[in-house]
Amino acid sequence: MKILKFGGTSVGSAKSIQCILNILQKRYYSGEKFIVVSSAMSGVTNLLTEMAFAASERKDFKSGLTEIENKHFSVAKELLEIKNQNPVLTQIKLYMNELEELLQGVNSLKELSLQSKDLILSYGEKCSTYLLSQISKQYFPESTYVDSSSLIKTNNQFGNAKVNVEKTEYLIKNYYKLHSDKIFFITGFIASNEENRITTLGRGGSDYTAAIFGAALEAEQIELWSDVDGMLTTDPKIVKKAFSLSELSYTEAMELSYFGAKVIYPPAMIPAFRKNIPILLLNTFNPDFKGTLIHKENIEKNPFPIKGISSINEISLVNVTGSGMIGEVGFSGRLFSLLAREQINVILITQSSSEHSITFAIEPNDIERAKNLITREFEMELQTHKINIPSIEENLCIIAIVGENMKQTPGISGKLFHVLGRNGINVHAIAQGSSEYNISVIIKKKNLAKALNTVHDTFFIELTKTLHVFVLGTGNIGATLFQQIQNQSNFLKENNDIEVKIVGISNSRKMLIQENGIDLIEWKAALNEGNQANLENFIQQMKIMNLSNCVFIDNTASPDPKKFYKSIFESNISIVTCNKIANSSSYKEYKILKDTARKRGVDFFYETNVGAGLPIIKTLKDLMNSGDRILKIEAILSGTISYIFNNFKGDVSFYEVVKKAQELGFTEPDPRDDLSGKDFMRKMMILARDAGYTTEEHEVLLENILSENCINANSVDDFYNELQKSESYFTEIKLKAEKEKKAIRYIGKLEKGKVSINLELVDASHPFYNLSGSDNIISFTTERYKYNPLVIKGPGAGAEVTAAGVFADLINVGTE
Ligand code: ADP
Ligand code: ASP
Ligand code: MG
User: Fold this and answer.
1) At CA 280, angle to CA 279 and CA 286, rounded to 5?
2) Which tens digit of pLDDT belongs to each residue from 49-83?
3) Which of 37, 229, 267, 349 is most exposed, with the fewest beta carbons within 10 Å of its own?
4) pLDDT score recorded for residue 303
5) Hey, is 607 helix, strand or coil?
6) Which atom of ligand 2 lies at the shortest distance from residue 8's CA?
7) What are the names of the required cofactors (predicted)?
């Protein structure tokens, strides 16, 4: 015989009850014996609770009554044949009348005892189970409605009553013996005390009812039918990547459900465990799902270090501190017996080893009561300042990682705290059960979704890690980056377990934010339909969304975004950028950004600030981190100027080469932006700063290639005119170079902390002599690379290589 318990959502509507009937018919016609336990229709227990409180405050409860009546009537009318409807509607009406009378009583007395509340709540289960039994009777005539309150006996702890197991099992067995030819439809959740007053078994208690019947009748299996595919790795309503577990031990299920996985009520495990009866969690709406089996020991090997993550969405912390607690025998005993006596459920306790403080978590509803009780009980200690007035922290939640594997695997808690820290989630308190089956942390409620998602990504590593990305700038580099991400997404998922989700895109005209990710094939059209761009607002939304593994990419050349960098880091968001303005403004600004990123444990990657995709910044960082010392850096970091001097040969004039370079798109619209050397200077400053110097712009010795007149010309055309006039200057250099068999190079140097950029003639023995096209080259002379410098050479400009550099930085976020 099996017990089949259907939860609130399974009996919530005619459509869902139809699903139950299909399940039952299959069992019935295959000759299986079963007993059904049913919860109240979804939402009804909550509604009854609200109505009871409303009545006690003389507020309206009648609309609730109508709502409950309608809910049941509409199911009855849809699923009962007309000839069967009348008696059922009458019975429900009778229940409603009784309920109204009770609420009226509460209303008159202006008082709601736990006892009356239980009686009121019991109507939820009575109505739904009676209705389900009568609908089922049309298919299985043996169907019989059973009010469990006459069979489950408890103590007087209304609201969360404790079962008298012996008596209950005796009553159930006897009842079953007498009616073994029937199919029982049993009310979940409700029971009664010695005086036959109704009690309830705690919220979610129908699971417990099923287990109590299962144990008493030594059922072959207890099936709990709900609206999800069994127990998932975490709450599927918060983490989309949560997946179903095929099995759990009783202990694991107990730990997960204790900390919020409400798909099963923790006490339900006890009778099942006692009689070694497996519990199977099933989905009423997906009958093909095989179920999560909860039994004594796991059979399969779990490939992950933990089994699941659960959460309690809202708790408050109470801190009791004071020197008087040190060495005081029995202090915590007194404190916790007081709370237990007054039925305040303590969810979690931590005590510092110095015994100077005790912190415990309780439900927010209990806060006022707890505070008052403690101040009364410890009045003496408070007056003599042995302890302080309890302090309260609110708007918190708990997340707990659970699993039997944790015991054998070191480093789990380190991993948990690391990932929370990286995402800017502060841990208020920690508790680890001595069983080592769970580690619980208390965090701010607003961080719950982010924490669950990141922790899930971290521990179920075979799952893809998702980077949530906000991109500023859709010019050449931005557009190329989207294309590259799009082309590479499958590869990244399969080989690196990384999913890049572009959540926000903005340029100077439009902005678009889509939490589920923007389709990178259609991004242009979608962005056009987006809102008017507003940088501040874009960044604000990014912060508010508080997504896990969040990265901001600045693909612009604008001076505006850098204003927000610091606050972005402070929101624990990493930045990847090819925009060099931030790093090459004042040294102070550079330092603040670096320090903030480091303190927040987020990344600030800007490889493309120097030499596009060439690994220059990274190499310098590796040299520095590994303890090497930079003696000298020499570099050609302007692709445009390289191109110009590489082609300034033979008969062509300097003017012609510049003009050609512009036509080929190798220069900025105004070629002076390149030829002024300013861009080059910025790159050299960034290198110098990364090499440990405090270089400022005014300290750089920059030799101008252009004459004053060229620089000051009013327009690009005027500039070209002036350039033609200074031709003799360039011809002279060219002739000199040709005569000496040298090449003209514009070289940046960092030596003894000084940055200079000069036009130089280098001979064939110089490593920079053979530089073709628009290549960049850099040589690092260091303590280790003293006689043979470390040289990096390659294409240092262009949308493809720059976007690829940004992309590489993005993928590296969070890996170092
Ligand atoms: P029922 O009414 O069937 O008893 P409950 O609402 O009590 O159902 O429990 C099912 C709900 O538990 C799911 O809808 C889901 O949102 C929630 N839940 C929380 N954590 C988990 C988890 N780890 N696995 C499955 N469900 C979970
Ligand atoms: N109806 C009760 C509740 O909502 C019991 C249950 O659903 O298990 O808590
Ligand atoms: Mg439930």
Assistant:
1) 160
2) 999 999 999 999 999 999 999 999 999 999 999 99
3) 349
4) 80
5) helix
6) 7
7) a metal cation
Reply yes or no on whether 683 is catalytic. yes
CB atoms near residue 483 (< 10 Å): 16
Query: Is CATH 3.90.550.60 the classification given to domain 465-611?
Result: no
**Measured on CA atoms in the order 737, 742, 745, 750, is the torsion positive or negative?**
negative
Vertex 305: Cα angle to 299 and 308 (nearest 5): 80
Query: Best of 41, 127, 203 to mutate for ligand 2, by most ligand atoms within 8 A of CB?
Result: 203
Residues with a CB atom less than 6 Å from ligand 1: 7-10, 39, 204, 226-228, 231-232, 234-235, 237, 261-263, 308, 310
CA 451 to each of CA 185, 312, 402, 427, 778: distance values in angstroms, whole numbers, following the listed order: 41, 12, 15, 11, 43
Return the domain boundaries, the chain: 2-227, 308-459, 465-611, 616-797
CATH 3.40.50.300 fits 2-227, yes or no: no
HSE (side-chain half, CA atoms, 13 Å) at 744 = 22
Dist. CA 293 → ligand 2 center (Å): 22
CA-only gyration radius of the chain, Å:
36
Question: CA separation (Å) from 137 to 84, 323, 420?
Answer: 10, 67, 54
List the end-to-end C-alpha distance of the chain, in Å, as a whole number: 56
Secondary structure, 3-state, 142-168: CEEEECHHHCCEECCCCCCCCECHHHH
Ligand 2 centroid from CA 74, angstroms: 21
Q: Which helix (H) or strand (E) holds 608?
A: none
DSSP 302: P
Residues 6+ apart with CB under 8 A from 384: 324
Ligand 2 contacts CB of residue 206 (under 6 A): yes
Per-residue model confidence (pLDDT) at position 61 = 96
The reply to whether ligand 2 has any atom less than 6 angstroms from the CB of 40 is: yes
Give the CATH class of 616-797: alpha beta
What Cα–Cα distance (Å) separates residue 283 from each residue in 220, 291, 716? 19, 8, 72
Q: For residue 746, which amino acid is it?
A: Y
Distance CA 188, CA 5 (A): 8
- Which pLDDT score is estimated for 104? 97
pLDDT at 463: 62
Outline where 571-714 has alpha helix (H).
587-600, 616-625, 639-647, 654-663, 672-675, 678-690, 708-712
DSSP line for 33-87: -EEEEE-PPTTHHHHHHHHHHHHHTT---HHHHHHHHHHHHHHHHHHS-HHHHHH
pLDDT of residue 5: 98
Query: Which of the residues in the chain have pLDDT under 50?
Result: none
Whether domain 308-459 has CATH 3.30.2130.10: the reply is yes
H/E stretch holding 751: strand 743-751
pTM value is: 0.71
518 CA → ligand 3 middle, Å: 36
Using an 8 Å Cβ cutoff, are 797 and 614 in contact? no
pLDDT at position 788, please? 85
Q: Separation of 441 CA from ligand 1 center, angstroms?
A: 21
